[in-house]
Write a structure and sequence with these properties.
Blueprint: E1 3-15, E2 21-29, E3 32-38, E4 47-54, H1 62-67, E5 74-81, E6 94-95, E7 105-111, E8 116-118, H2 120-124, E9 161-163, E10 167-179, E11 184-188, E12 198-202, H3 208-263
Antiparallel strand pairs: 1-2, 1-12, 2-11, 3-4, 3-6, 4-5, 7-10, 7-12, 8-9, 10-11
């Protein structure tokens, strides 16, 4: 599993070799520094803590300064869960966007844009009320929110409220290009968040490439095995049929010869 922290810059477009236009998001990915390696059972989790970005040392409190002792001041720190995988990273290691390759599929996790207080039409996709038949000033109202019997509003009722600023993960994004000199990565399509937002980029198991290659291999094996079985069966059955025909023919010939001798 590969992972890195980055910052969303802007969107642009690139061209494939066949002339196809592809919208991409430009991301500044890395360099990142490993600030801590967490292991079971001491830390109760298997994870790698990495830092991204720089800032002034006086902006960090004493605990933060002690945590990154011996390193440059880091502005953003995130934990990446690695499970039981062997990553070989240790505290103080640095790596860049060069760990990724063009054409790989990754998932991007970020914070969506904040949209403030929104009504039910924008937030939940309500259709609203008709514009006629006495619905004055009720076009975008939520309508009834339940019976009067319980005398309360049930939890989970879709109503107006704060929208955005959510943790969003977009999977199966293709890496179009990697610029190691500028530490930039071009990802196909859009990613969550506004310009300058911090995002986490990582590979993951169970992506489209993994499942597709496994299915194709299994299909090829089944196709290769099936004709061989059919051929061997037909070859084994052909001599039996021929032998049966010969037996029938010989019996008929013998019986006819016997009949002719008896008549004579």
């Amino acid at each position: 599993m590969k992972f890195i922290l980055g910052k969303k810059l802007d969107m642009t477009q690139v061209f494939r070799d066949n002339g196809e236009v592809v919208p991409v998001t430009r991301v500044q990915a890395g360099p990142c520094t490993v600030t801590q390696v967490k292991k079971m059972p001491k830390d109760r989790v298997n994870a790698v803590q990495i830092g991204f970005g720089t800032q002034k040392m006086f902006r960090l409190n004493k605990a933060q300064q002690g945590h990154i002792k011996g390193m440059d001041p880091i502005s953003t720190i995130r934990d990446m869960s690695v499970g039981a995988e062997e990553h070989g990273l240790k505290r103080g290691d640095k790596y860049t966007v060069s760990v990724f390759n063009s054409g790989e599929k990754v998932q991007v996790t970020g914070t969506s844009k904040g949209k403030g207080f929104q009504g039910v039409v924008k937030r939940h996709g309500f259709a609203g009320s008709p514009k006629t038949h006495g619905h004055k000033d009720q076009h975008r109202m939520p309508g009834s929110i339940g019976a009067t019997g319980p005398a309360r509003v049930f939890k989970g009722t879709r109503m107006g409220g704060h929208m955005g600023v959510d943790r969003v993960t977009v999977k199966n994004l293709e890496i179009m290009e990697i610029n190691e000199e500028a530490n930039e990565m071009l990802l196909k399509g859009a990613i969550p968040g506004a310009r300058g937002g911090i995002i986490m980029i990582s590979t993951y198991e169970g992506g489209m490439e993994v499942t597709s290659t496994v299915s194709e291999e299994s299909k090829e094996k089944s196709v290769e095995d099936s004709p061989k079985e059919v051929v061997t069966q037909t070859k084994e059955e052909e001599p039996k049929v021929a032998e049966e025909k010969n037996e029938v023919i010989t019996d008929s010939v013998v019986s006819e010869d016997a009949k002719t001798t008896e008549e004579k």
